[in-house]
Every structure is written in structure tokens, then in C-alpha cells.
Amino acid sequence: MLELNPPHRLLLGPGPCNVHYQVLRAMATPLMGHLDPRYIEIMDANMDMLRKVFQTENQITLPISGTGSAGMEAAFYNVLEPGDKAVICHAGFFGGRMMEFASRAGAEIVEVKGEWGQAIDPAQVIETLKQHPDAKLCAMVLVETSTGVQQPLDEVGAYLKGRDTLFLVDAVSALGAIPVRIDEVGIDVCYSCSQKGLAAPSGLAPVTFSVKAMQVVNNRKTKVQSWYLDISLLAKYWTGEKRAYHHTAPISMNYALFEALRIILDEGLQNRFERHQAAVNYLYAELGKRGFKYYAAEGFRAPTLTTVYTPEGLEAEPARIRLLNDFNIEVGSGLGPAAGKIWRIGLMGVNADPQNVARLMAAVDIMNGQ
Questions:
Q1: Residue 6: is its pLDDT beyond 80?
Q2: Which of helix, strand or coil describes residue 333?
């Protein structure tokens, strides 16, 4: 009979990343029922810690049971109804997925399209919003996982403050590793995942909804198309006085999230942000010595995800496969127009460490015959 014996990989791709042993240990602790009073204490603690990491006071801040794509569906399906207008900023694979979800919600889409590897000009977004003041929401990706571009949000957030249009942001490759600043920027709906900057296994999708966003949810004319992802129902389970049963929660995953969030806050958010930046700065220096060229535009490169063309003599996809097979190091391949052309190197959570950069570069040097 086949035995479970996975290899020990260094996960330097776009996610998942490796996790702290304390997080894995937390998952092996005794199970409780999903309405057990002691488990509810853990739920409350997870919400409180998520608020700190999202940098928000939003009451409705909780982990959806599902991966980051479930968080994206929850974000769009709860605030959009058929016939609503949605301004979607699209400069990569996951901007395209936003458009798919908005379309499935029955929205009329106004696309603000950018070039892969480039940030979208906030002035272009604001001009589009001026032309469509009736837009229900404006959606942007903070870190586009397919390109490694970190999108500036502040100007759009400032423009939307005091307006009816909701500001929806994808923080999948950002939360827990770079500042998200929900309240400061003016983000109304945001979602992420557990397996990247938060450094837990995949399976949960933290979301946060502002008071303005919840007013939109509570004033819907139609039911949310997904019962499972209906935030008004989930809120009764997560924040209600009597904790109304909704679904059987993934207990062990919430244990893992609890421990991962505790580790983040023990380190301190600012210290964590600085550690990620220091690790990627070291990566930049080492890549430059070896002739790698950047895919993402200068000035908009996310600390969590570095996208590069491999140097001459090191063909991207064969070298990536060799890294995995010969060195137990995973980096991501390109998507869309960058498929087979680039590496996506993730430095997230515990993996944002110069020692991991050094291990990757040592493998690169061997493959280059140095």
C-alpha cells in the first residue's frame, strides 16, 4: 500500500511556502467541536489577530473555509448583484480571474487594462471612475501573483473615500508580509489566503468587510449566489452572540492560523515587513551578479514575489524542473504571456531569509557549471 512520504522541499515559489514547526504542531493538537466554547475562544482570537494583521478595526474580519479563490468569490459575490457595474483593473492572471468572478455575479464590467509586468496608473483608474460614477465597486490586485508587481493603492483609495463605490482589493500575496493598511487606504473589501505571507498551510481565506461594504450586503435585493460564502450568514457563526451553526469548520486549520498569527504578532508587523524587504534586497543583489533580468517594472517589484528572466545558458523551464528534482527547491513558472519564460521566486513567511536565498543561488551556480 502506498505510504505518505512527501519530500522535504524548500518552497520558494508563489505559494505555498514552508511553515514554522509550531504551526504544524498546532495542527496535531486535539480536535474540538465547531461550537465548543473553547473553540469559539480560538475563533475570537483569530478574528482579533487578523484585524491587527489587516490593519483594520472592521468587525467582519474572519477566515473563510477555503483557499484564496474562495476568498475572491466571497468578496465579489457578496457585494455584486446582476446588473451592477464593476470597474476591474486587469494587468495579470489574477486581475483576469477578478473579471471572471464579477462576470459570474452578473455584473457589467468596465475593464482598466494594463500591461503584464507593469503597474496600472492610478490616474487612469480615477479617470475611469469619474466616467462611471455609478460603479458598485473598483477592484485592484495589491500584489499580482503572476507578475510580481506591487500595485500602488493610496490614490485610488483616497479618491473613493466618501463615495458610494466600494474599493475591493486582492491581498493574496501581500497579507502578513507587506503592509495592507485597510483602514488607512480606505479598502472596503479585502481577501487573502493562509499559505503565503501568513505562513500556514493552504485552506483558509481571511477576508475583511468594512461597515460600508456590510451595508451593501445587508441591502441586497437578491440572495448571495453562494450560500456557503454568504458573509451575512458566516457573520452569525463568527460574530453572533449565540454563534448560529453554519458549517463544520476546519478546526485544525484554524489552530494553524492561530499559531501562525501569534508568531507574526510576536515578531511584530514592522519587523516582519523589514525582514521581507531585507531578504528580497539580498536576492536582488545575488540575481544581479548572475545575469538575471527582471520581468516586473522597477519601482513596483513586490518583496514577496520576484519575477525574472533566467540568464543565457539557463533555460527557464528545464532549469526550474531541475531545481525541483535535483535540489528539492521549488520556484514558480510563468503564467499567461510569461509562461515558460520566467521564474517566480517567492520569499514569504519563514522563507524570507538570506539563508534560503543563498541555497537557491548555490543551486543556480551548480546548474551553470560554476
A1: yes
A2: strand
